[in-house]
Structures are given as structure tokens and as C-alpha cells.
Design goal:
Length: 90
Amino acid sequence: MSYKFNEGHILQELKAYIDGTYNEHYASDKYQATDIIVDSGHGEGFCIGNIMKYAKRYGNKEGKNRKDILKILHYGIIMLNIHDMETNND
């Protein structure tokens, strides 16, 4: 597939970023904080709040930081998963 906006490369970069988050210190326990937040019914607000936080931070903290955009996309993916679980979409 030939993408107009370099989506293939960006999706690969996003996957590498997400894979890397599973090697960080807070992912070493059986359950991540996000698991507990989602299981307690607060996942949607948590994801939306983090999307808003990183969107607001972009361009301010450490300039136009690419990692902030990756975090926005990652929380968007988690939000899609929550949506699918709540609406029984697989």
C-alpha cells in the first residue's frame, strides 16, 4: 500500500513506541496502573484526560516534542480498546 501521508512509517514508529512502554519501570508489575484505572470504570476519562494533557503540552514542554504526539496516539488506541470492550466490538 502506498500512503500519501507516510502513514506506514508512522504506524511502525508508533508500534515501536508502544512496544517500548512495556519495557519501562511501571510496566514490570503484573498490572499496570492503566489496567486498574480501566477495570475500575475510569478508563475513558483517564484516556481523554491524558490525550488533552499531551495535546496541551505539545509545543510548550520541550518544544514540539514528537513523543507527546505518540502518547496522544497511544492513549487513543487504549480508548479504542475501551470503546470496543464497552460496546462488544471486536
